[in-house]
Give the backbone structure.
Amino acid sequence: MNVETFLAHAIQLEREAARRYEELASAMTTEGNAELKAFFALMAKYSRLHLAEAMARGGFREIPVIAPQDFQWPDGVSPETADWAGVDAFLDARDALQLAMDCEQRGHAWYAAVAASTTDRELKALASEFAAEEADHLAQLHKLMSVKLA
């Protein structure tokens, strides 16, 4: 994988993450959980910022347009959408947090795997930076889960 292909993947991954968090914020509105609604809305904002960062970094490059079936995802599915069946009326705080955690773990693992598997120094640095940001998201989710679900 080269930097341009990585950025195309990161753009798609972060776009999907923002959508997922927006769905979770909406579900927590229905659930009546204002605190989690605010948290998921903030996480959607972070994902959109990460998306903007990936797009800006690609601004000086030719980012390839990749057909959905041509993305190089583990198991052929984006880490942020794997096992994502969407939100239903019965989604509670525990399930919402677990869905978010599962997606963030897969996103982090993907970025970390790219960093670990490349010999390209620029790609390694970029993927490592994105993995670190995902690790921060995981830490925030762990903290919230330990408080909310204890």
